[in-house]
Amino acid sequence: MGIVELLGLAGSVSLIAGWRLYLTVFITGLVMRLGWISLPEHLQLLDALANPWVLAISALGALAEFFADKILWLDSIWDTIHTVIRPLGGALLALAVVDAGDPAWQVAIFLLGGGAALLSHGAKAGARALVNTSPEPVSNAMVSTGEDIATGSLLFLAFAHPVAAMIIASLLLILCLVLVYKGYGLWRK
After folding, report:
1. Between the CA atoms of 2, 44, 86 and 73, what dihedral angle is there, to the nearest 10 degrees?
2. Of 9, 34, 122, 159, which has the highest C-beta tally within 10 A?
3. Rounded mean pLDDT of 107-115?
4. What distance in Å separates the CA atoms of residue 65 and residue 21, rounded to the nearest whole number?
5. What local confidence, expressed as pLDDT, does residue 62 receive?
6. How far apart (Å, rounded) are the C-alpha atoms in residues 170 and 185?
7. What is the Cα–Cα distance from 86 to 113, expressed in whole angstroms?
């Protein structure tokens, strides 16, 4: 993998971790455990995600998040709790993907990965808070299911075609910026 592919994978995984950290860790570990992707030597740090304990804990977290995210207002409480966890997880995933030897590069990747995860988490949490105000209960479950599908699809795309995933992640990052800006405007009113 070249630097562009590595950055595409790191950016995509950290951005997706802002929506669904546990599912991101679980799918990444599962595809590695099943041998669907072979890691280059410099990505062996990610091999820890294929550990049976990590898979079991992330599967349990993904299952809990799946149900918590479908229940009106419980999803906002869950998002509030994960405001620190998701960005930190996204930063660590980005750092594990790039695994740079230079400390300055490590700090830059950690900050960029955490920033991407925080931004996508903020956009998701803000959008979900707006969805929670709708009078009918179906929209919350529909939006959550859409997030589940998008997470799985983008992760598989990131592993199969990191450059394409980086382009899509960049577009989603712009969308997240717009949503955060619009959400801030609504909050001020």
Report:
1. 110
2. 9
3. 88
4. 9
5. 94
6. 23
7. 11
As to burial, measured by CB atoms within 10 angstroms (0-12 exposed, 13-18 middle, 19+ buried), residue 86 is buried
CA dihedral for 43, 122, 146, 54, sign (positive or negative) = positive
Residues 6 or more apart whose CB falls under 8 angstroms from that of 95 comprise: 106, 109, 110, 113
- Max Cα–Cα distance, the chain, nearest Å: 52
Following DSSP, what letter does each residue of 71-129 receive, concatenated?
Answer: STTHHHHHHHHTTTHHHHHHHHHHHHHH--SSHHHHHHHHHHHHHHHHHHHHHHHHHHH
User: 54 pLDDT exceeds 90?
Assistant: yes
Amino acid at 148: D
Place of tokens 């599908």: 149
